[in-house]
User: Fold this.
Amino acid sequence: MIIAIANQKGGVGKTTTAINLAAAFARLGKRVLLLDLDPQANSSISFLDPLSIERSAYELMTDGLAPVEQAIYRTPVEGLDLVPARINLAKFESKLIGDIDSHFRLKDRLKSVIKEYRYIIIDTPPTLGLLTVNALVAASHLLVPIQSSYFALEGTDDLLETVEKIRARPNPDLEFLGVVITIHDKRTILGRDIRGHIQEVFGKKVFKTIISRSVRLEESPAYKEPIFTFAPHSSGALQYYKLSEEVIGRV
Ligand SMILES: Nc1ncnc2c1ncn2[C@@H]1O[C@H](COP(=O)(O)OP(=O)(O)OP(=O)(O)O)[C@@H](O)[C@H]1O
Ligand SMILES: [Mg+2]
Assistant:
């Protein structure tokens, strides 16, 4: 199962969801690969020292001859491996422009390692460019985090349109797994209104588990830990654990 986590709106909790969902699956004893397709490299920096990275997602997708394993790193989390990103990933689009297989680079390169992992989770950048398209072409499922904020649904139409185009041709098997509401404040009327609105638009696709606004979740990447070791008894740990169960239940 390959889950792309995407929303071209920035700062909605894609990376936080990718890291903690990946860590939750690993804690359940599954082999997991987290793939960072964002040149900002936030997922990578949450686990690895950037100076220790030699080969990354960019080399994985542009150098078809080198073994895929060279871009895979172990993380301190048992069972969780990582393909990190570096800033050179920002060149990906300009390098591949015009190549007829440019949408399929990731899918083709993952073929040889797919069997090793129960879950592959792809963190994507806040754009609908070639990197996100590569993620959606390679993925079996799409998970969309939507921040509980006034402009929550801004841009989701464009995302769903892109998904339809990808389903029409390169990846008819892509399934819309669901929407997770993130950074939610249930104490405010606005928070409750926004939640209701997201549920009206996406109906059953909205996961029951909602990720609350939490200082612990915000802090954990700075300490290079997923929420389960950084603050195991926090609401964030419980909510991401529940989300992982819901995801498993949907497939
Ligand atoms: N539930 C939460 N409670 C509080 N802060 C959160 C929560 N989830 C994420 N954050 C914080 O919000 C910011 C944006 O989150 P994150 O990096 O996960 O979003 P993103 O969608 O990956 O952003 P980008 O589009 O830039 O890649 C980060 O500083 C993160 O620590
Ligand atoms: Mg991110």
Remarks:
- Residues 37 and 124 are 5 Å apart (CA to CA).
- The radius of gyration is 17 Å.
- The pocket of magnesium ion (ligand 2) is lined by residues 14-15, 38, 42, 123 (CB under 6 Å).
- The longest helix spans residues 235-250.
